[in-house]
């Protein structure tokens, strides 16, 4: 459909001739009411005449269009806009086009040459636009054009004053785009090329004649139309060609070393890299521009690993750097010693979500408890200092850009239950350096000792974005591999909520990276809000396994492996799905709200026989398990009949001690019906949350489901009417 400007009021400054005239005619032809502003000056800004504007107004009116003239200088912006308001009652579009030239080689540019150019181009556009701004804001519509020039973008001999003003307009437009964004005020900049009296001194008469102004007008009209959502962009236009420009930035180089002075020599030595546009990026906002520097700063200033799997967003493809596996593998980092008291153990337990609400958590939270213990995963805390001290960057052959470092995977194995206080010394060795193409993986093995006794072993898998392609091996026999879970529904699912302050609490255990607490820092890393530490989710998942399969007995815990797949936001719920295969508990952790997997390929190995296959029911098993087993048998016997009666997918969340203890899905909708333990794979028609005890009360006919619902004991999401069919599903269990 043709683009109409019916009802719109358009001001084109300097439209008594040249490009401006063409714009004015084109807008009027499409129904706009046009203010034709022109001072009628000569090309250097001298003189004054109403003739130029009048002539264009006459031309428009002769064609049946609507137009009024204004003869003020753009330096009288208020008056120019007032003409629009007086004549047409509003202002929708401002095309800042008026211009003059006062070309001089730089040495000969006088103050007047400089000032007049700034006054007409830059200050004039500012004054006219400012006068229109509040009207546009109030009506929540505005379209603004700034007119720049190739002289400003690329430079032009003899046009220092003009170049400066023209690119100044681009800066002005960039900010107006941001300030006008919420008000549907868009601002774009064009650098036109057309034959006009301004260009006839530099172009041949043929060129002046053939580079018609009418070849530029259409892009101005489109940018000013209500349908056009473009804002903050710069276009070159001429001869019927239109192109868009943007900023391009090299990967650059970090020329500062941790704890060292930054020198000009370092800059010189990295100059080629600083200027190399290979794998360049295209930042389009200050945020994007500064984001990377903040990541650099974090790496250089903090004592922390630039961490969290998810900093990937911040780390656009990085430069490949000096990785030399032959030199690095086998290198030892300086040993670190971690001194702690019960306070650190308790703080860590709180950090990974333990609570006095759960009576069996008390042994990890109360130093006076007869079985006071340290959570097994505290083993990562004792050894992480080796990683976080920035030690990796000091290893010969590991000349990595460690702002590009992500925590990819973690393995922890305990040889002894951790003490609850003391001093633990960690010795770290670069076990291997792998080439994954897009990045490099550094395997850092850390052995942690109490005196001479080996307490635990950690393997940190560190992914260095962009550092691959050095021709190294892809895999290593030294890597503790992540393993996929079995292909059946999980045996146990535990849902546990993190709190809004989970990261704020967890960081007190030693990972002080501001990414986890400071909103502006997180924003610069590309996150909406500070994210939870990957190792915090790791702690949650590990204690879920410990509780479900090892009765919270730390001595049963042997090892854990996880891969960090996605970030978790504090306050989200973690859903740990567990599969028991002998003494190995496979697990996967999801964010319940988004269903995205955050810990993948994970497992916990347990000591002892209690986790053997014949003893599948975890300690403290739920009474409801028996009922669901019975329901399963009934579905096998007469599923089709039940499907007819119920025709719905019913999901159950069974809680115990105020925590989610199990999930079941009874599918009485699809062929023959089915039951499985775990959340429904598709969408359940109704989800019922009830405690194990109340479930049994309902099943045994001692508690009416409706009474339970109104008492808040039975919560229902989805089709509440389906609860009336519960009886069909649950009846006959009263005998249980
Ligand atoms: P032009 O000289 O034909 O048009 C400029 C108009 O602005 C004139 O009619 C003039 O009277 C008016 N004007 C000057 N000072 C004024 C003031 N203080 N208040 C109100 N009106 C005033 O030139 P042209 O080529 O049409 O240029 C239009 C715009 O495009 C200018 O901003 C120019 O710098 C820019 N431009 C033009 C290029 C080209 O190839 N023609 C190249 C790059 C930029």
In words, what does this structure look like?
With 736 residues, the protein is α/β, with parallel strands linked by helices. 31% of the residues lie in helices and 24% in strands. Strands 10-13-14-15-12-17-20-19-18-16 form a 10-stranded antiparallel beta sheet. The chain has an 8-stranded mixed beta sheet with strand order 3-2-1-4-5-6-7-8, sandwiched between helices. It has a 5-stranded mixed beta sheet with strand order 23-22-21-24-25. β22 and β23 form a beta hairpin. α1 crosses α8 and α3 runs parallel beside α4. The termini are far apart. The relative contact order is 0.06. About 4% of the residues have low confidence. It binds 1,4-dihydronicotinamide adenine dinucleotide. The site of 1,4-dihydronicotinamide adenine dinucleotide has 33 residues, from α1, α4 and β6.
Question: Mind sketching the topology for me?
Answer:
Elements: E1 9-12, H1 18-29, E2 33-37, H2 51-62, E3 66-70, H3 77-88, E4 93-95, H4 111-139, E5 142-147, H5 150-154, H6 160-180, E6 185-193, H7 205-210, H8 217-223, E7 234-238, E8 241-245, H9 264-269, H10 271-274, H11 286-301, E9 322-323, H12 325-328, E10 336-340, H13 342-351, H14 362-365, H15 379-388, E11 398-399, E12 405-414, E13 422-435, E14 439-450, E15 453-465, E16 492-497, H16 502-506, H17 519-524, H18 534-550, E17 557-564, E18 573-581, E19 584-591, E20 596-606, H19 624-646, E21 648-656, E22 659-668, E23 674-677, E24 686-691, H20 692-699, H21 705-710, E25 714-718, H22 726-730
Parallel strand pairs: 1-2, 1-4, 2-3, 4-5, 5-6, 6-7, 21-24
Antiparallel strand pairs: 7-8, 9-11, 10-13, 12-15, 12-17, 13-14, 14-15, 16-18, 17-20, 18-19, 19-20, 21-22, 22-23, 24-25
The protein binds 1,4-dihydronicotinamide adenine dinucleotide (NAI).
């Amino acid at each position: 459909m043709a683009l109409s400007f019916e009802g719109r009021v358009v001001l084109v400054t300097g439209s008594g001739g040249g490009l401006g005239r063409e714009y004015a005619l084109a807008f009027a032809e499409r129904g706009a009411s046009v203010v034709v502003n022109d001072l009628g000056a000569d090309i250097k800004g001298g003189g004054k005449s109403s003739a130029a504007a009048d002539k264009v107004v006459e031309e428009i009116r002769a064609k049946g269009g609507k137009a009024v003239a204004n003869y003020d200088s753009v330096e009288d912006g208020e008056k120019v806009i007032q003409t629009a308001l007086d004549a047409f009652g509003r202002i929708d579009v401002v095309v800042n086009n008026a211009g003059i030239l006062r070309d001089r080689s730089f040495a000969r540019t006088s103050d007047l040459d400089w000032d007049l150019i700034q006054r007409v181009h830059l200050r004039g556009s500012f004054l006219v636009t400012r006068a229109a701004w509040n009207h546009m804001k109030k009506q929540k519509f505005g379209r603004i054009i700034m007119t720049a020039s190739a002289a400003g973008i690329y430079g032009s001999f003899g046009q220092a004053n003009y170049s400066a003003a023209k690119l100044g307009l681009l800066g002005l437009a960039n900010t107006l785009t941001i300030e006008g964004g919420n008000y549907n005020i868009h601002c774009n900049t064009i650098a036109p090329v057309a034959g006009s009296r301004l260009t006839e001194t530099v172009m041949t008469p043929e060129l002046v004649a053939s580079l018609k102004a009418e070849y530029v007008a259409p892009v101005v009209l489109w940018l000013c139309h209500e349908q056009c959502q473009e804002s903050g962009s710069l276009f070159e236009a001429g001869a019927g060609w239109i192109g868009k420009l943007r900023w391009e930035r090299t990967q650059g180089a970090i020329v500062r070393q941790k704890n060292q002075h930054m020198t000009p020599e370092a800059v010189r030595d990295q100059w080629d890299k600083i200027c190399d546009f290979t794998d360049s990026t295209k930042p389009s906002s200050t945020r994007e521009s500064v984001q990377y520097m903040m990541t650099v700063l974090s790496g250089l200033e903090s004592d922390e690993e630039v961490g969290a799997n998810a900093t990937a967003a911040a780390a656009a493809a990085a430069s490949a750097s000096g990785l030399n596996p032959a030199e690095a593998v086998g290198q030892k980092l300086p040993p670190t010693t971690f001194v702690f008291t019960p306070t650190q153990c308790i703080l860590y337990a709180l950090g990974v979500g333990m609570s006095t609400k759960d009576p069996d958590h008390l042994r990890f939270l109360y130093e006076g408890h007869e079985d006071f213990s340290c959570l097994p995963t505290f083993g990562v805390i004792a050894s992480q200092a080796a990683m976080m001290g920035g030690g990796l960057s000091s290893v010969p052959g590991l000349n990595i850009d460690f702002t590009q470092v992500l925590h990819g995977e973690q393995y922890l194995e305990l040889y002894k239950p951790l003490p609850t206080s003391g001093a633990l010394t960690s010795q770290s060795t670069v076990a291997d350096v792998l080439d994954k193409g897009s990045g490099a993986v550094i395997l850092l093995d850390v052995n942690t000792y109490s005196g001479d006794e080996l307490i635990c072993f950690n393997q940190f898998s560190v992914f260095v974005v962009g550092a691959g392609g050095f021709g190294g091996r892809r895999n290593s026999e030294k890597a503790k591999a992540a393993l996929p879970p079995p292909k059946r529904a999980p045996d146990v699912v535990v849902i546990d909520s993190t709190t809004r302050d989970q990261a704020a609490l967890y960081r007190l255990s030693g990972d002080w990276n501001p990414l986890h607490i400071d909103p502006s820092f997180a924003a610069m890393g590309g996150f909406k809000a500070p994210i939870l530490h990957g190792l915090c989710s790791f702690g949650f998942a590990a204690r879920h396994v410990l509780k479900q399969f090892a009765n919270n007995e730390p001595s049963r815990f042997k090892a854990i492996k996880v891969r960090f797949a996605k970030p978790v936001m504090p306050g989200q719920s973690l859903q740990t799905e567990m599969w028991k295969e002998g003494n190995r508990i496979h697990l996967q952790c999801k964010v319940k709200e988004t269903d995205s997997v955050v810990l993948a390929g994970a497992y916990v190995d347990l000591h002892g026989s209690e986790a053997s296959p014949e003893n599948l029911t975890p300690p403290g098993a739920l009474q409801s398990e028996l009922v669901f087993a019975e329901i399963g048998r009934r579905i096998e016997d007469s599923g089709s009949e039940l499907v007819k009666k119920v025709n719905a997918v019913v999901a159950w969340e069974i809680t115990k001690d105020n925590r989610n203890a199990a999930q079941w899905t009874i599918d009485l909708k699809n062929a023959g019906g089915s039951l499985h333990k775990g959340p429904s794979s598709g969408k359940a028609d109704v989800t019922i949350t009830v405690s194990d005890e109340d479930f049994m009360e309902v099943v045994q006919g001692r508690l009416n489901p409706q009474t339970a619902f109104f008492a808040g004991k039975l919560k229902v999401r989805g089709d509440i009417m389906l609860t009336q069919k519960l009886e069909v599903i649950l009846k006959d269990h009263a005998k249980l």
